């Protein structure tokens, strides 16, 4: 079975001992964690979400703002460090940034695009972007929006994975099907979109 790794660094739900570390102690623990996990799964997992949900929800358009998490407060460059550490641990694993509200509906979509574009321009080793795609039949990206966004990631030379797609139906199964199918169509229309994952196992 092919599967992707999720995730190496996330501010939410960490072990208490990890969240309690400060400064260099936290930095060293993060580096050790990334290094050991990637080396352990070398050759078994070919893609990892290195960092999950680091951009603040208030980010808009060209401006991104880092989420004021314990990670950012202790290690302001933790995203750069995480990706550099991951690449040093494995030269072959594809390294992804993963986030929500990044599918083209919100200002955060453009902010994350510009954040990742900046990482690329500074030589940070990133191979792809995960679009979580938690949407509903009341709030979802039109086909042209998501198709354009994925296309622009392709132009940056990045791979795109739709990583956590679910669509709240609001009682409208037909509209729900349309949102799923348009997301898949946009993925299939762009050669850099390589994965389409559904959030949850069942489809009641």
TrEMBL record:
Can you tell me which residues the record assigns to a coiled coil? Answer: none
Enzyme Commission (EC) number: 3.2.1.8
Which Pfam families does the UniProt record give? Answer: Glyco_hydro_10 (PF00331)
Listed A to Z, the keywords are: Carbohydrate metabolism, Glycosidase, Hydrolase, Polysaccharide degradation, Signal, Xylan degradation
Care to name a GO molecular-function term for this sequence? endo-1,4-beta-xylanase activity
| Organism domain of life | Eukaryota
Q: Pinpoint the GH10 domain residues.
A: 1-204
What this protein is called in its record is Beta-xylanase
Q: Which PANTHER family match?
A: BETA-XYLANASE, GLYCOSYL HYDROLASE
Which InterPro entries does the UniProt entry name for this protein? Answer: GH, GH10, GH10_dom
Record-stated family: Belongs to the glycosyl hydrolase 10 (cellulase F) family.
Catalytic activity reads: Endohydrolysis of (1->4)-beta-D-xylosidic linkages in xylans
Check the record and name the SMART domains matching this protein: Glyco_10
Gene Ontology biological process terms from the UniProt entry: xylan catabolic process
Q: What is the lineage of its organism?
A: Eukaryota, Fungi, Fungi incertae sedis, Chytridiomycota, Chytridiomycota incertae sedis
Q: From what organism does this protein derive?
A: Anaeromyces robustus
